[in-house]
């Protein structure tokens, strides 16, 4: 479910990156859900050409995915397939974090890798040939680019799952029939914790994904093409004869380099950021030793993770953990006892599940605790220490508590407690229920509760609101000083230089704040 | 009176008809609020630099679609002599077709069939158009000036070695990238921490 400020934030990001025209189309799709091209034109009142170009840009930049559904046509002409477009909200949010993705890469790979992915982030999608042309255009003397080394770089990135093949252009989405509806809901209770049915966006993304093996494959040389070609031809309508001549493969290989399109795999980067977030959290709570152990466990098991929001890591034995720890620079000097002690510490905080000599990281727990701390910190800063204690009590108990009981347990004055509770309730942090007891005399009790699901959505919306405010302020400040910024450096004298220094500091401060806030948004939305 | 613009609900609106029940407040775009201490914010210059480069690329790329004036409406007005000297409205951006792989593997069929693909790979402009970036020449002057400033400041600075190394590395990285002439840097990032210190009056807090 998209919240109001989530939508506004996303629209502002697109406006900054691609202009008002594209943003108009994007906003239309965000507010109205998946639409056909004609409907987009109708609602935005733009010309055919403008809608088409905007959609092309959004698809190219992976912000929109097209799909088709079969609609039974009333005129007995048979079912008609029509193309609809759905906005990929998560991918729009990722756009403000591209700098973080590139930072990860620069820590793990070389400069050529970073530049290749930078090109993919700038353009959204590129073929190998385009990547080569781009690299050649900014070639420096003494550092010539050749196709083979670039291909190797691409293979490295694809193997690490940081780059993937682009999804299908318009997959067919099967509508969920009415009989399946209730059955799905029953099944979903056991399958998912929250029990929400998949949104259309999620269904479309899943339908568009290429098969796992093909998603992370690169057409390299003739011999290894055999495997890929067979999978490629699965996309061809069944029943067609397939010829696998070596000569044909060779031609197809070259043609593929010009036609197979790749893009950055955001999931891979988010997974990496999630790991880093967990390690930082553990380091803050325990110590460097525990952080090293966790980091080693992640190193060993990350390739086995199927999706970003994995609950637990693959179990590892103590000896394999120790082997991994001493491989890393930070953990080289750790003894087995030290590792065991850290695992015990992690287990006490439920960050790691220990069972029959194997240890597995409980991501959900680490993230849950980090989220709690974030919300409690907001409450404490905004409403004070008493409110913080009250909120923590309600959050931990997870059920309705009565006003007097709250003030007794938290040692808050009886006359202050209702005021604080009322303030928290008004701002959407608590739920309230009235209980009227008719006995000897009628008395009314007020009961309070923290509902985590609702509250988390509210907190996330507030974060989007804050992010939007920050972006608006940055745009406003830069716009105000536009002429000053366009002045050449030697013309900036006296008061102009002061103003320039001011705008520079303002920009650095505001943008750093945006990056920090984005860490919190990641914690609540993507981790 | 209705206030439009970037208010997004903030600020006061005049009461309907001005009956006197609603207090009319002046419209403030960014009302004063209590802000947190700015020193607690970790400054992420690397991230800002990357972000800035990407943003500058997109703003000058063909992907930034401008709402251009329709050609039909121009022909309604009589062409005047004074119009000859006016700058032409046409954009200097490249066409998006030079980058898009317009085949049905990549885009939906209904969008592909109307577009022409640009076939000539030599015409593709990978680096942002010079005209749009405006600051090209001045950028180079800025970088020169920045280089000089850096040298002066380093002489005055009481070195904290790690910081200096960091600064030098960052400075070098910047010089390297600026030699490409690829990216438009509106703000010069002379990664010289002294700017902060000098303005803040020598705090006791640790510098980065």
TrEMBL record, chain A:
- Reply yes or no: does the keyword Transcription apply: yes
Q: Where in the cell is it found?
A: Nucleus
Species for this entry: Citrus sinensis (Sweet orange)
List residues of the RNA polymerase III subunit RPC82-related helix-turn-helix domain. 10-68
Q: Is Transcription set as a keyword in this record?
A: yes
Q: How does it assemble?
A: Component of the RNA polymerase III (Pol III) complex consisting of 17 subunits.
Q: Which part of the chain is the DNA-directed RNA polymerase III subunit RPC3 winged-helix domain?
A: 375-441
- What is the name of this protein? DNA-directed RNA polymerase III subunit RPC3
Arranged from A to Z, the UniProt key words for this protein are:
DNA-directed RNA polymerase, Nucleus, Transcription
What GO MF annotations does this protein's record show?
single-stranded DNA binding
Q: What is the lineage of its organism?
A: Eukaryota, Viridiplantae, Streptophyta, Embryophyta, Tracheophyta
Write out the similarity annotation.
Belongs to the eukaryotic RPC3/POLR3C RNA polymerase subunit family.
Task: Tell me the GO BP annotations in alphabetical order.
Answer: DNA-templated transcription
Q: Which InterPro entries match?
A: POLR3C_WHD, RNA_pol_III_RPC82-rel_HTH, RNA_pol_III_Rpc82_C, RPC3, WH-like_DNA-bd_sf
What is the protein's known function?
A: DNA-dependent RNA polymerase catalyzes the transcription of DNA into RNA using the four ribonucleoside triphosphates as substrates. Specific core component of RNA polymerase III which synthesizes small RNAs, such as 5S rRNA and tRNAs.
Tell me where in this chain the RNA polymerase III Rpc82 C -terminal domain is found: 152-369
What's any one GO cellular component for it?
RNA polymerase III complex
TrEMBL record, chain B:
Protein name according to UniProt: DNA-directed RNA polymerase III subunit
- Record's keyword terms, sorted: Nucleus
Q: Where is the signal peptide?
A: none
Q: Residues annotated as region Disordered?
A: 143-208
The answer to whether keyword Nucleus applies is yes
Q: Which family does it belong to?
A: Belongs to the eukaryotic RPC7 RNA polymerase subunit family.
List where Basic and acidic residues composition bias occurs.
143-159
Its GO biological process annotations read:
transcription by RNA polymerase III
Q: Which residues form a coiled coil?
A: none
Source species taxonomy: Eukaryota, Viridiplantae, Streptophyta, Embryophyta, Tracheophyta
UniProt GO cellular component terms: RNA polymerase III complex
Q: Localized where? A: Nucleus
From start to end residue, where is composition biased (Acidic residues)?
160-208
Organism, scientific name: Citrus sinensis (Sweet orange)
């Amino acid at each position: 479910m998209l919240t109001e400020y989530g939508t506004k934030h996303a629209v502002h990001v697109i406006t900054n990156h691609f202009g008002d025209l594209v943003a108009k189309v994007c906003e239309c799709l965000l507010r109205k859900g998946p639409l056909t091209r004609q409907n987009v034109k109708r609602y935005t009142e733009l010309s055919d050409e403008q809608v088409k170009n905007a959609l092309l840009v959004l698809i190219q930049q992976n912000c929109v995915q097209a799909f088709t559904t079969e609609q039974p046509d009333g005129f007995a002409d048979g079912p008609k397939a029509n193309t609809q477009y759905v906005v990929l909200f998560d991918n729009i949010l990722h756009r403000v974090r591209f700098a973080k993705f590139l930072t990860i890469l620069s820590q793990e790979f070389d400069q050529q890798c970073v530049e290749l992915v930078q090109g993919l982030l700038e353009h959204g999608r590129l073929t190998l040939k385009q990547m080569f042309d781009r690299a050649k255009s900014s070639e420096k003397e003494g550092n010539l680019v050749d196709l083979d080394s670039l291909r190797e770089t691409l293979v490295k990135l694809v193997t690490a799952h940081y780059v993937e093949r682009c999804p299908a252009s318009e997959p067919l989405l099967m509508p969920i029939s009415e009989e399946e509806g209730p059955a799905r809901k029953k099944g979903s209770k056991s399958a998912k914790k929250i029990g929400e049915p998949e949104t259309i966006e999620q269904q479309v993304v899943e339908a568009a994904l290429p098969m796992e093996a093909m998603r992370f494959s690169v057409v390299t040389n003739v011999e290894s093409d055999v495997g890929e070609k067979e999978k490629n031809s699965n996309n061809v309508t069944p029943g067609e004869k397939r010829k696998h001549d070596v000569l044909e493969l060779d031609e197809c290989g070259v043609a593929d380099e010009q036609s197979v399109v790749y893009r950055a795999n955001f999931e891979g980067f988010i997974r990496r950021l999630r790991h880093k977030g967990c390690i930082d959290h553990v380091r803050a709570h325990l110590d460097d030793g525990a952080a090293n152990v966790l980091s080693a466990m992640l190193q060993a098991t990350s390739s086995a993770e199927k999706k970003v929001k994995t609950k637990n890591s693959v179990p590892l034995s103590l000896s394999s953990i120790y082997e991994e720890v001493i491989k890393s620079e930070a953990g080289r000097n750790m003894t087995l006892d030290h590792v065991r002690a850290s695992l015990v510490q992690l287990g006490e905080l439920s960050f790691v599940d220990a069972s029959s000599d194997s240890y597995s990281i409980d991501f959900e727990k680490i993230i849950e605790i980090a989220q709690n701390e974030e919300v409690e910190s907001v409450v404490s800063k905004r409403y004070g220490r008493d409110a913080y204690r009250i909120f923590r009590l309600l959050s931990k108990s997870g059920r309705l508590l009565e006003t007097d009981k709250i003030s007794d347990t938290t040692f808050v004055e009886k006359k202050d407690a209702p005021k604080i509770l009322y303030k928290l309730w008004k701002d959407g942090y608590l739920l309230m229920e009235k209980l009227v007891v008719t006995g000897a005399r009628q008395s009314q009790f007020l009961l309070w509760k923290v509902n985590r699901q609702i509250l988390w959505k509210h907190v996330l919306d507030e974060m989007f609101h804050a992010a939007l405010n920050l972006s608006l302020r940055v745009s406003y400040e830069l716009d105000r000083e536009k002429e000053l910024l366009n002045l050449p450096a030697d013309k900036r004298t006296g008061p102009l230089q002061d103003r320039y220094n001011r705008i520079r500091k303002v920009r650095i401060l505001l943008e750093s704040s945006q990056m920090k806030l984005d860490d919190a948004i990641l914690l609540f939305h993507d981790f | 009176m209705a206030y439009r613009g970037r208010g997004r609900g903030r600020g006061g609106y005049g009461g309907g008809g001005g009956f006197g029940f609603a207090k009319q407040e002046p419209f403030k775009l960014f009302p004063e609020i209590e802000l947190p201490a700015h020193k607690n914010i970790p400054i992420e210059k690397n991230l800002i630099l990357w972000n800035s480069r990407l943003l500058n690329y997109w703003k000058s790329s063909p992907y930034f679609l401008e709402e251009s004036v329709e050609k039909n409406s121009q022909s309604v007005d009589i062409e005047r002599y004074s119009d000859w000297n006016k700058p032409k409205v046409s954009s200097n951006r490249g066409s998006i077709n030079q980058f898009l792989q317009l085949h049905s593997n990549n885009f939906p069929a209904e969008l592909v069939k109307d577009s022409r693909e640009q076939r000539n790979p030599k015409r593709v402009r990978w680096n942002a158009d010079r005209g749009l970036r405006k600051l090209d020449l001045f950028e180079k002057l800025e970088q020169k000036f920045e280089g000089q400033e850096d040298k002066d400041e380093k002489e005055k600075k009481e070195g904290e070695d790690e910081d200096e190394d960091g600064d030098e590395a960052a400075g070098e990285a910047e010089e390297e990238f600026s030699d490409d002439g690829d990216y438009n840097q509106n703000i010069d990032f002379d990664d010289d921490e002294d700017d902060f210190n000098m303005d803040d009056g020598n705090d006791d807090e640790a510098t980065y």
